[in-house]
Structures are given as structure tokens and as C-alpha cells.
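Researcher: Next entry in the queue.
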Amino acid sequence: MTLRQELDDLEHLRNGHTPQTRGHAFEGWLKKLLEEGNLEPSTRYRPKGEEIDGSFVHRDRTYLLEAKWFAEAIPASAIYAFKGKVDGKLTGTIGVFVSMSGYSDDSVDALRFGKELNVILFDRKDVEAALDHGFATILAFKLRAAADQGELFTPYIAPPKETREAATVVVEGRSDEIVVRAVADSLALSGAKVRDLEVVVAHGAMGLAHIAAAALQARGGDVLAIADSDGFRTEIPHPEVIEGKNIEVIIVDPEIEIWMGYTKRPGERVSQAEVRRRAMEIDVSRLAADNEAFRRLVKFLKG
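Model: Structure for this entry, 303 residues:
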């Protein structure tokens, strides 16, 4: 059985896997992926009462590893707990946190306020990319982004098939990604030509500029960053990072949900399926005529 098939079994809880046992099984699967890349992984161990999922070696440097597969997105507390373990090791040690259930936007933004960057985050898309390109390739990309941009979570961005047609959209959260992709699908279904599109989730507004800059470096072409105004924002955080670069910014007032005819109440959660359903029901032509921010998105997607 291939690693991809084993991961699919974990995803769909086949071969006796349960939500309770999947996390531990995923650690074993990840060890196989690291072995395949000759990264010398070690398994779970307990130094001085701590529990660490493992470690691996990349270019003669040892990295601590944490691997999780929860039902919900990882909260800030889990990442802080891992960072505490990394802080207590040899100066310069870097931790790699892998979450197949993603991260809450506030958890990633909270870590961006920290002074010391010593944890790199992987999500499901990064793991899937590692199956195609190797874990070391994804790690090297993320380390470069961390060094260049000071960003702990830059999703792996593959080079485009055709640089001339490349279009990258960087958004705050997963629901925003769903909306952008749904709009692109609606345009394609109407017969419009949509560019070679990559949508990257920054997990919070604080990382938009840095990840947009990394996307431009990785893919070239045109890059667009979309942020909610939240009733007061007129530009994305750290605008100096993208100054003079071929990166467009759209601020949606008050938030992207307005394109679907509603605004979220504080703490409200809407399922991804419901977000996509509402997004696919957007009257693209009418909204583009009435809403400047949406009109700019449509123009960007069509090139």
C-alpha cells in the first residue's frame, strides 16, 4: 500500500481507524514519509517528563516534530505548548508542527506577535504536497519564507504551469478561500476564461503581506491579497512588505460575507458547505456592477 493510500485510509477511518486512534497512527505515517526522504526520523520520546512526538534531521540540523489530527482546527494553546518545548532545547532549535485539521486563524496570528520565531507550521495541503515533492522540499520552502519574510506559516506554493497566466490570491481564512474559488468556478461555468489560479490561506490578516510577497517570489505573475475591513481597516498589516511589488490589495467592507448578502455575527460559525452554497449563488454580473471590490476580484481572476 502506498503512503497516499494509507493517508486516504486515515482520512476516511478505514481499516479499523477511529477519530481517537487516528492521531497516533498519523505519527507513524509521518515517520514513514520522513524515512522516504532520508530525514532520519525518531519516534515519540519523553525527555524530563515532556512528551515529544519525534524529531528528524535536515541538512545536518535536528528539528523537533509535533503531529496532530484533531476534529477541529488547532488552537493557540497547543502551538504555545509545543513552542515551550522547543524553547527549552539547544539555542537555535526549530520545531515543526504538523496539523491535518488546520489552525484557527487567531492561533496563527497570536504567534505572529511573538519576538522569537522558532516554530514552522505545516497543514494538510503541505502534507499532500510533500507526497508529490518530498517533505524536504516543502520544509526548505517554508524555511526560506521564514528567513525572508519572518513568517511562521507560509503554505507551500508550487510554481505555475505557465507564469504568464499565473494568478495567486492570498486570503485571511478558509471560508474566504471557498468564496474566491466559487467565484472562479462560476466564471468558468459561464464561459469566461479564468487564469491558472492558486488560493493561499494566510490564517489571519497579520500574515497577508508576508505570504503575498512569498507567493510572488514562488509563482511570479500577479498576486492579489484580500482582507476584511472589519469596519476600520483601510490597508493590510505590514503594507511596507509589498510596497513597489506587483501585488494588488482589496479591502472588503466590512467583510467578504457581504458578497453573499450577509455579515457574520461575532462568534458565528457557518459550515464550509454552506459558505460554498451561498458563494455559488452569487449573481456575479450584478454584484460586479454594484460592488467595486468584487468587480476588482472578477477582473483579476479573468486577467
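Model: The chain has eleven helices and eight strands.
Researcher: Noted, moving on.
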